[in-house]
Amino acid sequence: MSGIRVYPEKCVGCGACVPVCPVSAITLKEKKAIIDLDKCTLCGACVSACSFDAIEIVREEPAGRRDFSGYRGVWVFAEQRDGEISPVAYELLGKAQELARVRNSYVGALLLGSGVRDRALQLIERGADKVYVADHPDLAHYISENYTKVIVELVEKHKPEIILAGATTTGRSLVSRIAVNLYAGLTADCTGLDIDPDTNLLVQTRPAFGGNIMAQIICPHFRPQMATVRHKVMPESPVDSSRQGEIIDAEIPAQLRDPRIKFLDFFREMTSTVNIAEADVIVSGGRGLQDAKNFSLIEELAETLGAAVGSSRACVDAGWIPYSHQVGQTGRTVCPKVYIACGISGQIQHLVGMQSSDVIVAVNKDPDAPIFQVADYGIVGDVLKVVPLLTAQFKDALARK
Amino acid sequence: MNIIVCIKQVPDTTEVKINPETNTLVREGVDSVINPFDMYAIEEAVRLKERYGGKVTLLSMGPPQAEAALREALALGGDEAVLLSDRVFAGSDTWSTSLVLARAIEKIKEFDLVLCGKQASDGDTAQVGPGIATHIDLPQATYVRKIDTVHLDADPRVIVVERLLEDGYELLELQLPALLTVVKEINEPRMPSLRGKMAAKKAKIPVWNNEDLGIDEKTIGLKGSPTQVVKVFSPPRKTGGKVFQGDPQETVPRLFEEIKELF
Questions:
Q1: To the nearest whole percent, how much of chain B has pLDDT over 90?
Q2: Which fold has domain A281-400?
């Protein structure tokens, strides 16, 4: 029987496991950890917290080991809209090449759409050895049901060992369906992927709890091993026009279109031209701006830097800026190279959405604001004074360039 | 219109603190709440019921204490609730969790719509909603920010929704029954009414275990879950940021010198 065990002879009663339990299932009794099995969800947080290997999660191995020797290849889902391949696909191709080298196998790319066949070359230039193309009018717009059908057939036929997709609104919804169909393991929103040299398994590292904890996840008894990967974490694979690759036309299933779901229309909607999920630089405004009209200061700095405009929840709730700009727990998680937080105090719900940015710059009048705890650089001061000066300084520098 | 809302009980992140010495999350004494994203799903279900009639059934898989989340959701306007709780469910990953919820939804049988929050605030996977839809074979729309129209008199009955994307939104038409996951933009959840609170207090919440659902134990819990967590650790935290204080005429040029190379 699977479950969790405390080894009393190893437990020293230090209590390190008690506060990390998310469901408060652990208590100390006579200097030994006791786990309330009615509360425990077997999440494993206590196992990692114990320095004495006194807690173990016991897993019953699935009966009859499956043979995975036929599974080979690292596949990437190449997301596209209107034939334009999303940059996250190139990030995935970079990682896929690295993994394929270690596994001594190949990189495959999945390209689904209508009139997209010639885009396969772009994927080859970026590192794909094989591109599986499904080109059909019914695949013009992403519909998870239809895309799943095509990809599940390809996977069953070619048996890749690993499948990666971007952790985007499309990627997350699509591969969830594929994984359930295939009875495969899927890890969401990974920021690290490596092959374990001893087991040859894919070790998937992902933030949980809004980035406050990290988890490493493996999938030993199921194939393919699937993961969505956070955008902007891994570098794009460079273009190499001398690369050669194979284009394979996928079989289009007879019943391609699920009649129960129909795409009607798409509306582009971004008040500024730069999308916060894709941006290298984000300038965000918060309550410290005091008034809707002061958001223009943020927009001006963003425009000067070629940056996207972000916002804290407070400004969205006040109606100063649309929801699509909201960064944080109930908005978007972003990971730009530079994040400039202006007049944002840094509530944990905001921090979880931006704390993995490469460089964080904060401007806030309160020196004790939590935003300064995650900032690389900061100014304590009034945003209404600091931001225009900063904009002027950058404008000046750009004019002299 | 009969609606099933799947909810999860999660630790309240507004209360979570980091222990600076050990760099671990301090969860002791932290309250459990309904996953914030599920609040929008509950509210949307109640609004649809108020408009089109029918009932709202709340569903949650979790340890026995998750009953509190269901009771709280009943106070917000739900009609019935079922808790899915069994030792054999513990340790389920998103694959197995969505299977358990799917089998329970099939057991409830009469439903037109399943609503979920876009993701849970503790795991952040966004995989369980689409997982349920796939296990039952329902059409799905994720990240729904608005239900545009509901055509209950049409044949087949359809719903038109706006699905939020990174760069805009798309309009999708789905036949009922269907599954939607919703984002914050869809509504503003109400506060529980006094009457709702009273009714929720008295409500009987049945607990279904795996004997009720009859799922092959090889496909649930630790054993049936394809993914395994091998390690949980705290990410290294940033220290030693350079923060300038004083007259902006002086601090801005100093900051500029530090960051100008980044652009």
A1: 80
A2: Rossmann fold (3.40.50)
Phi, psi angles (nearest 5°) of residue B232: -125, 130
What are the pLDDT digits (tens) for A48-61? 889 899 999 888 77
Give CA–CA dist A60/A83, Å, rounded.
Answer: 47
With CB atoms and an 8 Å threshold, state whether B171 touches A266: yes
Distance (Å) from the C-alpha of residue A146 to the closest C-alpha of chain B? 10
| E strands present in B17-69 | 17-19, 24-26, 32-34, 56-61
For B167-220, write each residue's pLDDT tens digit: 889 999 999 999 999 999 999 999 999 999 999 999 999 999 999 999 999 999
- Please identify, in words, the CATH class of the domain defined by A74-249: alpha beta
Query: Which ranges constitute the DSSP H helices of B179-262?
Result: 194-202, 210-213, 221-224, 248-259
Looking only at the bridges linking them, the beta strands covering B242-245 and A162-166 are unpaired
CB contact under 8 A, B140 and A177: yes
Reply yes or no on domain B3-226 having CATH 3.40.50.620: yes
For A262, residues 6+ apart whose C-beta sits below 8 A from its C-beta are B172, B173, B174
Could you tell me the residue ranges of all domains in chain A? 3-58, 74-249, 281-400
Distance in angstroms (rounded) separating the CA atoms of residues B168 and A271:
10
Give the number of beta-carbon pairs within 8 Å between A and B: 333
Task: Give 3-state DSSP helix, strand, coil % of chain A, rounded to 5.
Answer: 30, 25, 45
Query: Which of the residues B10, B88, B121, B127 would you substitute to probe the A interface, choosing the one with the greatest number of A C-beta atoms within 10 Å?
Result: B127
Q: Which residue's structure tokens are 């979570």?
A: B16
Of B35, B47, B209, B62, residue with least CA distance to B126: B35
Q: What are the chain A neighbours of B237 within 8 Å (beta carbons)?
A: 373-374
* pLDDT digit string, tens, across residues B62-84: 999 899 999 999 999 999 999 99
Nearest to B28 among A24, A215, A347 (CB): A24
Return d(Cα A182, Cα A126) in angstroms, integer.
28
- Return the residue in A213, A282, A401 with the most chain B beta carbons within 10 A, the one to mutate for interface testing: A213
- Mutant choice from B136, B175, B227 vs A, greatest count of A C-beta within 10 A: B227
Lay out the sheet containing B3-6: strands in order across.
Answer: A261-268, B168-175, B158-165, B140-151, B178-182, B113-117, B3-6, B56-61, B80-84, B207-208
Domains A3-58 and A74-249 share a fold: no
**What's the alpha-carbon Rg for chain A, to the nearest Å?**
24
pLDDT at A189: 92
CA distances in angstroms from B57 to A249, B47, B149, B193, B232, listed in the order given: 46, 13, 22, 18, 35
Q: Does domain A3-58 have CATH number 3.30.70.20?
A: yes
Q: With contacts defined as CB-CB under 8 Å, which chain A residues touch B255?
A: 361, 377-379, 390
**pLDDT band, residue A330 (cuts 50/70/90):** confident
Round to the nearest angstrom and report the end-to-end CA distance of chain B.
54
- Provide, as residue numbers in chain B, all residues whose Cβ is less than 8 Å from the Cβ of A169: 142-143, 163-166
Which two tokens mark B175? 């036949």
Mean pLDDT of A190-201: 95
Q: Which residues on adjacent β-strands are paired with residue A163?
A: A75, A226
Judged against a pLDDT cut of 90, whether residue A102 lies above it is answered with yes
Provide the whole-model pTM: 0.89
pLDDT at residue A58, rounded to an integer: 86
Rounded Cα–Cα distance for residues A207 and A188 (Å): 9
